[in-house]
Design goal:
two-stranded antiparallel ribbon; 224 residues; mainly alpha; 68% helix; single chain; 4 strands
Length: 224
Amino acid sequence: MAILLIAVGLLFTGIDIHGLFGIYYPDINVVGVVGKFQLSESIRTYTTKNILGDQVQVDYLPDAVGCVLILIGVCLLLKHNRQFVLSIPFILLTAVLSVLLRASGFLVQGPDLVIWILASYFLLAICEILMEYFVIYCAAGVTDDLANRASNTRMLFGWWITVFCRVFMTFLTFVGHFGVKRGYQAVLVLATAFYLYHLVGARKYVGKSEPVKIRMRRKWEKKW
């Protein structure tokens, strides 16, 4: 059950499908200085138009809901691998930042909004990847029975492909190259389905062998 909760949660955090419901932000005016620095027009446009937009973008697979599911699954698996605790701060940060980013247009105005959006956007991307890193590697650690080790290797490979895609998608969204982003998004969906398939299949191996530490698993990967 814990692995299934984590898999569904990772689906929610890994894939973003946004919709608009006509909830508009107040008129945004970000012209001005932040401290001693004058923000360039391109930076103001990238943040307010490409990242935030003029309407609230509602995620049909909310990251906050995904984080709750992952957190429940992680808590259930702590008895098998204490290293899961490393993921908890990033799970909580991802949930909070995903909400703060979309609410930022209501919370802050003026040029400070640009800094708020940039900080929330890039911190969210970093925290999400770190959260998944610890969750995925710890999940591999508790299911790394000899019979499942090759499957776990494929799972981790698929997850690293999603990381590659999301890094590029983060910057493509920032600069507004949405056409190119869709290509990476298609690869992301396929890679996510691939690694989650292997993760769900590994659930029957939970607790059948001693947990493998993240450091040890990374050493094995370097040898391969």
